[in-house]
Structure formats: structure tokens, C-alpha cells
Amino acid sequence: MSDAKPVTVLSAMVRPALEPHLPEGLDVRWFASTEEMLALAPGAEIGWFDSNDKTPMAAAVKAATRLKWLNSIYAGLDFLPLDLLAQRQVVVTNGAGINAITIAEYVVMLMLAQAKGYADVVRAQDRKEWLMDSPGKKELAGSRALLLGMGAIGRLVKTRLEAFGVEVVPVRRTAAEGALGPDEWRGKLGEFDWIILAVPATPETDGMIGSDELAAMKTDAVLVNIARGSVVDQHALVRALQGREIGGALLDVTTPEPLPTNHPLWDLDNAQITMHLSGRAQDRMFQRSAQRFLDNLQSYLAGGEVGPRFDPALGY
After folding, report:
1. At 35, which helix (H) or strand (E)?
2. Is there a catalytic annotation at residue 292?
3. Residue of 123, 257, 305, 309 marked catalytic
4. Is 3.90.1300.10 the CATH number for 7-98+284-310?
5. Cβ neighbours of 97 (radius 10 Å)
6. What pTM, to 2 d.p., does this model score?
7. Reduced to 3 DSSP states, what percent helix, strand and coil does the chain have, rounded to the nearest 5?
8. Which of 279, 301, 261, 206 is nearest to 50 (CA)?
9. Is 24 considered catalytic here?
10. pLDDT tens for residues 220-272?
11. Fold held by 100-280
């Protein structure tokens, strides 16, 4: 580390949570607009360029030629120029685990709503209609779920579903008791009631659920996607749902986002779309992210490690 104060470019959105706790020895520059972010990025050694619009985030990364450490609240960073970050050997920390609790809760909520037909209950209330029977009669207890992705989110999904009596079988890169290997799960798809996707978006996972995988599922099985829309062949999914080839799809993510208003997914009664809200269904996201950044910043300035590390070369 040079004697010069590290130029640290941060969003004004997190300023109230960060500024009172920032250590001495920083040259902190705050941005309150996309234009300010892009103007400040070239001088940044440390950058936290998060924005609701991901296009200027990628532009800021490209412009930040002096960047040594990039921080983000996002867990998936596939929208950034990862090859450039790898080439420049930028240390990247992401938001892995920040939203894990609320996303895991969202998975349970979606599955319970599907099992009990709760969407139909809400619509009946809107109509002021007193239903005489439950539109959904499934119980989570005794069902089986295939879980693809055992990161921070997947681990919490597993424990919460197990508390409901669901048998959760994860897919792991290496053989383990009670788990399936990467070459095994496709041959076992027909044995599960729920297929839960919690994998990162990488070239390896792109379109991993397609026509063949959907055809191998049970006709009453339900696909749950809280990963990325790109993990599923969406055209194949629409065909499978239209043909009642599977029981349903619970989609927190789609391709593209936002989903166009004329997209057929909106009109399918066996699909639930929750607009990528699972990670936002909390009030502690920025608080948790700010504290993690402050802890990492202290370590970075002392020449220590930061985390969780995102590997641009691997894409997760």
C-alpha cells in the first residue's frame, strides 16, 4: 500500500450507514447519480458501484482502470465485464449470504403457497367469495426436493425445508452421503416433487434446465427458480407449462427482467412470478452490507484478506 490515501468511490445511498464509521486514511468520494459515478470511477482504488441499473455499473467497472478492490451487494455479478476484472486482477467481494435468510424464507413461502393453492384463496377474497374447500391439498411433509446449489442460500433452504419434513437431496460437485453428483441428478429428476435452483449464473449453468430435463420431471413436480432466469430455457418451460407436462413453476427470476407485459408466462395459471423480490423482502440488506464492507475495509487497509471473494474467472 502506498502512502497516498486510497481513493474510495461509494454510493451516497449507503453514506449514512458508512460515513460515521469510516477509518482515517481514506480519500472518500460519494456519488449520487450515474453521471457522478462514471466521472469518479477512473480514480477509484476501492469501488462500490452498485445501482438499480446494472448497465452503468458495468460501465463504471470498465472505466475504473486503477481499481484494486470492487465491492458489491449483488451475489451474482454475471452482468459485469468479468474477463476484464480477471485480467486486471481486481479483488472482488460480493453479496453472497447477505440476502440468504430472506431468500430461503421466500422459497418456503412459495412452496407453501403452491401446496395450499394460496393464490386462489387470495383471489377468492378479492371476489368476496367464501370457499367451501381448499384449492390446494398438498403437504410439504413427506415430499422430496432436489436442490441444485449449496451456497449460502442453498444451505439455509435445506435446513428450513427439512424443518417442514421435506427430504432435501442436494447436488454437490464431489460425492457425499445423501447428495447426488453433477453427473447423477438428471437421471434422478423423476424421483422429486420439487426441483429448486439456487446455482450461480455461469456458462456451466446456462440453460441447465431445458426440454430434456423438464420432460424427465414428474407431471406434478414443481420447478422453483431463485437463481437466474438464464438457468432455465424459458421457451421450453412455457411449452411444458402450457402442455401441463409439469405441475408448475415458481419463478422469482425470469429472462429478461422486467418480464414484458405481453409475455405468455404472465397468463399461465400454473406459474407464479415474484419479480425478483426475494432478496428485497427484508429491511436489513443495506445494514448488513455496510457492516460487511466496514469489516472488509479494516482488513484491506491492514493488508489482510477480504470476503466473501468472488472469482471473475469462475463467475461465482
Report:
1. helix 34-40
2. no
3. 257
4. no
5. 17
6. 0.89
7. 40, 15, 45
8. 279
9. no
10. 999 999 999 999 999 999 999 999 999 999 999 999 999 999 999 999 999 99
11. Rossmann fold (3.40.50)
